[in-house]
Amino acid sequence: MHQVSVSLAGTILATVALTGLTAAPALASTHGARGAGDRYFPLQGNGGYDVKHYDLRLRYDPASRHLRARTIIRATAKKRLTSFDLDFRRNLRISTVTVNGVGAVFHQPAALKQELVVRPFRAVAKDKTFTVVVRYAGTPAAITDPDGSVEGWVPTKDGAFVVGEPQGAPSWFPCNDTPRDKATYDFRVTVPRGVTAIANGDLTGQTRKGRWTTFRWHNREPMSTYLVTVTTGRFDVRTGTTPGGVPYYIASDPKLTAKSSAVLAKLPAVTDYLAELYGPYPFSSTGAIVDDASKVGYALETQTKPVYDRPPDELTLAHEAAHMYFGDSVTFKRWRDIWIAEGFAEFSSWMWSEHTGGKTAQGFFDTYYKKKATSSVWKPPPGNPGSAANLFSASVYLRGAMTLQALRVKLGDATFFDVLRSWHQTHRGRNVTVGQFRAFAEQRSGQDLSRFFDVWLVRKAKPTSW
Ligand code: TRP
Ligand code: ZN
């Protein structure tokens, strides 16, 4: 009751006082920055603090599409904060926000579509850990991206398909939505009996109460917000451990189990093969979620458990599995560096094909290299997609993977795979740039690769000599 009244007062204060604050430069020194500095998504992420842990409690009813939730954020202040922003869309209604247990003033400026401005009752001192609790409810709305694709909380017939790349997370939980602020997660998701709730990491409990079932998941290794999922629906579930010792959790929509089981059965072998190629698997478990959500049009490498909008083919399964190393464990610092994820995942799917006696990686290279200089295979260059609308263009994937195959030929298998293995080992759990990979490959191989990388990653034209 106490919290409610403080927060109500907060809401009123927010409209009078905080609208002013938004524009007041005098207060900027103790306000966490509005965005994390990404040129493709200027409002994404925030400054002034680092999130360590998210504790998400959600109740979702697929029939009414109603979500009720409470998010706890544990963060460390990087400077004194009299106020700070979270990323959160305005379609869900917030009832209360507290900071360190005390009701806080909060405001969602209409002009800033994903900013939730929080002003704690007492300022947070530099280097202090603080806790934010946000309670909210409503109907989450999916988000349309600059390239026209949908993401966020996407309702299905029996639940929701939840994906966050590049900006879907704030459609359903308040967060610091930058790939650079990785955190651990606990999930407690309540759904109607018969529905399964699947999140990242490991299942730690499942309890039934009346009409409802609560699933608890714990994600141990730090994760970027765009890789979070809480996908719900009716699912057939298989669990086990790969021969190499990685636990897996594989779920498929019952309507799609027959169509997907042959490919999903390869996941243990794919996982162990990638560990041979790139070193120990970086997370506590692996898996897959195959849902009936084909209007989404893509799969996503949600950490530990990629989600598929339809039964995947084997190349797609291997692509998403490889993202666990490149994308999820080693993550780009900014969206422009997406090649660090997509080029490597696509190349790895070619390696899986080669390993299993199918088309070789060089075979894939040759097929695409035949494409005319005007083909979309070449444009934009993968090291500089140019804008948010081009993040997932074919060239980022295909020319991006060809770059690695060309590097493999140039360095030889022993040196090339040593570079990839040590690259993952060195940067595991962290964020990187394309520039860092270029420098790393040069240093590790002892070769001058500056022209090679310019030709393949930066220059606009189809590479002809390198
Ligand atoms: N990163 C995903 C993959 O390659 C694809 C993806 C995520 C995507 N969001 C997208 C593709 C939006 C097109 C549009 O596995
Ligand atoms: Zn990918």
Ligand inventory reads: tryptophan, zinc ion
* CATH architectural category of the largest domain: Sandwich
Oligomer: single chain
Tally of DSSP helical segments: 10
| Low-confidence runs of at least 5 consecutive residues | 1-28
CATH homologous superfamily title of the largest domain:
tricorn interacting facor f3 domain
Round the mean pLDDT to the nearest integer and report it. Answer: 94
Range of helix content: 25-40%
| Silhouette | globular
**Spatial order of the strands in the main sheet?**
5-4-8-2-1-12-15-14
- Termini Cα gap: 69 Å
Largest sheet: 8 strands, mixed
Give an overview in words.
It is a single chain. By secondary structure, the chain is α+β, with helices and mostly antiparallel strands. It is built from ten helices and 22 strands. The strands form six sheets. The chain has an eight-stranded mixed β-sheet. A four-stranded mixed β-sheet has the order 17-18-19-20, with helices on one face. A three-stranded antiparallel β-sheet has the order 3-7-6. Helix 4 packs across helix 5, helix 6 (361-369) packs across helix 7 (394-411) and helix 8 (413-427) crosses helix 9. 49% of the residues are buried. Tryptophan is lined by residues 145, 147, 149, 165, 298-301, 319-320, 342, 392.
